Amino acid sequence: MDIRMTKLLFLLLLFSCSIHAQLKKFSFSQPKMGSYFTIVFYDKDTLHATRMANECFALVDSLNEIFSDYIPGSELNRLSSSSGKAEWVSVSAPLLDILLVSQKAWKLSGGAFDITVGPVIRLWRRARKENRFPDKDSLAVALKATGFNYILIDSIHKRVQLIKPGMRLDLGGIAQGYMAQKVLNHLQYYQINSALVDASGDIVTGDAPPDKAGWRIAVNLPESTTELMDNKIVVHNKAVITSGDVYQYMIHDGKRYSHIVDPRTGYGVTNQRNATVITADGVEADWLATACTILSLKQIRRLARKLKAGFLIGTMKEEKLIFYKNKIFETYQPGIEKGLH
Fold first, then answer.
1. Is residue 184 part of a domain?
2. Are 205 and 313 within one domain?
3. 181 falls within a domain
4. 228 found inside a domain
5. Are both 151 and 202 inside the same structural domain?
6. Are residues 198 and 325 in the same domain?
7. Domain containing 113: what range?
8. Strand 195-199 vs strand 35-43: parallel, antiparallel, or unpaired?
9. Cβ atoms of 133 and 252 closer than 8 Å
10. From CA 286, how far away is CA 148, in angstroms rounded?
11. Could you tell me if 202 and 156 lie in one domain?
12. Last residue of some domain: 144, 162, 180?
């Protein structure tokens, strides 16, 4: 190697080290949607980092005004109020986008993920609040107002029609992953690539932190709000989302019913299961994690293969903690605990 090449390599190494030396780690967190929304990224100066974080939180607020079913005047609720009126409703680009993704999720999951389950969800929310198990007749009435096949989507003219009266859309199983992904996309648009977005546990990552293999992410054990699995997941440019009934459930006749409702039956799932999925996209990871708490293991394996997703299912069987995973997941968390199948 001649002296000119040696000097060039030295200058490139010096330049690379200089870039890394300039980057600082920033972490911002604000309460959003009843929990905390956290953004971690590497940037060059505090003022720019703060401005970017404020833009991201403003983006979250704007999307929540569209997607929330808790805000009376949200765009989602205005659309739901049009159900059964045989009229087309113009929708914003974000709402159209998430409805199209939800339609795809509904088809791929065989109906295990369905945003039209809103009337049933509301019934279960009231039941948990009043500590009163919903009766069969009320559930039957709520189920009659569901079904994604009763949503007409005109993507060309950006309009939607809800055919059945009483339909209520609920984006609880997909909106947070969507928001987290959009925030990451916003940061990447401005060349902030080493970033992690945590929307109340729905995590989306960009490039790895400087000089690291990836972002280290812990996964909760099933039935525990504090215990974590020993081996952390190490990822970059992936979404990691866990769904389960640790925080919200009710017990009736000795059986535990999750807040996650099977749209096909109207009842909360009773399998005491945590599902963690890893995919390249936060929106897909969010709905897939929800579907994985409902589908059978055989169906989960088939769907994960189709989507090239990693999954880890933790469930209680005869008071024993059992794990199931696929090979894709193992690449991000080698040497996982015994008892895997």
1. no
2. yes
3. no
4. yes
5. no
6. yes
7. 75-162
8. antiparallel
9. yes
10. 18
11. no
12. 162
Look up the CATH number of the domain holding residue 129: 1.10.3980.10
Instruction: Assess contact for 275 and 242: CB atoms under 8 A.
Output: yes
Q: List Cβ neighbours of 13 (8 Å cut-off, separation of 6 or more).
A: none
Single-letter amino acid code for the residue at 76: L
- From first to last of its 341 residues, the chain has per-residue pLDDT tens of 444 444 444 444 444 444 455 899 999 999 998 899 999 999 999 999 999 999 999 999 999 999 999 999 999 999 999 999 999 999 999 999 999 999 999 999 999 999 999 999 999 888 888 888 888 999 999 999 999 999 999 999 999 999 999 999 999 999 999 999 999 999 999 999 999 999 999 999 999 999 999 999 988 766 555 566 667 899 999 999 998 765 566 676 667 677 788 999 988 877 778 899 999 999 999 999 999 999 999 999 999 999 999 999 988 777 788 899 999 999 998 654 433 43
Tokens 């009736």, located at residue:
252
As for how many domains the chain has, the answer is: 2
In angstroms, rounded to a whole number, what is the distance separating the alpha carbons of residues 38 and 193? Answer: 16
Name the token pair of 218.
């812990």
**Is the domain of 158 the same as that of 106?**
yes
CB 41 within 8 A of CB 51: no
Q: Are residues 199 and 320 in the same domain?
A: yes
Q: Which two tokens stand for residue 78?
A: 């205005």
**Would you tell me how many other CB atoms lie within 10 Å of the CB of residue 111?**
18
Q: Whose structure tokens read 């808790």?
A: 70
In a domain, 153, yes or no: yes
Which position has the token pair 């990822």? 235
**Count of positions (residues) in the chain:** 341
What are the tokens at 158? 């950006």
Amino acid at 131: N
